[in-house]
Amino acid sequence: MQHPPHQSLQVAAVQSLQGRPAAVPKPRVAAREEDGPWHAEAVCRRDEAGLFFAPSKEPTAARLSREEAAKRVCARCPVMVACREHALLQPEPYGVWGGLTAAERRVVLARRRRRAAELRQAPGAGPIAAAG
């Protein structure tokens, strides 16, 4: 049986953070065309959604182990890059998406912002320099 595509995990994560049992999040159906059909090819559709999202009050060792297992699933996924970009553009605040944890995605976003600022400040930063 296939699982539907990802949904934003804010509801499950908020429930988890509030100490309520978080239901396994039901993946959201792409509401816009730009969400694209990549969801249909995601390997995680066939895996347990709980692998990708933390239960409430998860011990650190258990979280690290679960995240590594989720990343192994992502590593064999044909749409990992599209999933990662989706999570970075949303931005998805919880879970493992595209092989990155929420903390790792925050680092990527900070690097992208820093790089964009450097490109804007670079002398002679015209359209060609900014494209690089």
TrEMBL record:
**Note accompanying the cofactor annotation:** Binds 1 [4Fe-4S] cluster per subunit. Following nitrosylation of the [4Fe-4S] cluster binds 1 [4Fe-8(NO)] cluster per subunit.
Modification note: Upon Fe-S cluster removal intramolecular disulfide bonds are formed. The Fe-S cluster can be nitrosylated by nitric oxide (NO).
Give the protein's cofactors: [4Fe-4S] cluster
Question: Where, in this chain's numbering, is [4Fe-4S] cluster bound?
Answer: C44, C74, C77, C83
Described by its record, this protein's role is as follows:
Acts as a transcriptional regulator. Probably redox-responsive. The apo- but not holo-form probably binds DNA.
Secreted found in the keyword field: no
Its organism's taxonomic lineage begins at: Bacteria, Bacillati, Actinomycetota, Actinomycetes, Kitasatosporales
Q: Does the keyword Iron-sulfur apply?
A: yes
Question: Could you tell me which residue ranges the 4Fe-4S Wbl-type domain spans?
Answer: 43-107
Family per record? Belongs to the WhiB family.
| Xref: InterPro entries | 4FE4S_WBL, Whib
Q: What is this protein called?
A: Transcriptional regulator WhiB
Q: Which keywords label this protein?
A: 4Fe-4S, Cytoplasm, Disulfide bond, DNA-binding, Iron, Iron-sulfur, Metal-binding, Transcription, Transcription regulation
Q: Where in the cell is it found?
A: Cytoplasm
